[in-house]
Amino acid sequence: MKTLYIVRGVPGSGKSTFAKSIGGIHIEADQFFMMDGKYNFDITKIKLAHKYCQNQTEAWMKTDGTQVNNDKIVVSNTFTQEWEMEPYFKLAEKYGYRTFSLIVENRHGGVNEHDVPEDKLELMKNRFEVKL
Questions:
Q1: Residue whose C-alpha is closest to residue 120's, from 83, 77, 75, 80
Q2: Domain count within the chain
Q3: Sign, CA torsion 30/83/105/21
Q4: Which domain holds residue 11?
Q5: Can you tell me the distance from the alpha carbon of 113 to that of 11, in angstroms, rounded to the nearest whole number?
Q6: In the chain, which stretches have pLDDT less than 70?
Q7: Using an 8 Å Cβ cutoff, are 75 and 7 in contact?
């Protein structure tokens, strides 16, 4: 069965590390900001980064799977609100993927590698939606 994993959490929670441990194709908006092996975040391009992530996800979903196994796709982003995941749920339905949403908590004292300011982290935590 083809599976889409949506890995959610605030910066420093270990989303990327956990996503990579699942295996499969790993996609995240941070990849958009990588230039010559360096992370160059630009807030003015955040919408483009998330569109890139969605486009990459769809591109992998619609391949026939003969060159690269596309049965397992893992998307890791903060996804603090339900609407941010909606495009991925729609893609999964369109291409026949079952979906799991996983929240990664920072219980291990993980480091916020991208130096997101504390006030921004607090805003993310306060708007984090969970649907049980």
A1: 80
A2: 1
A3: negative
A4: 1-71+97-107
A5: 8
A6: 108, 110-115
A7: yes
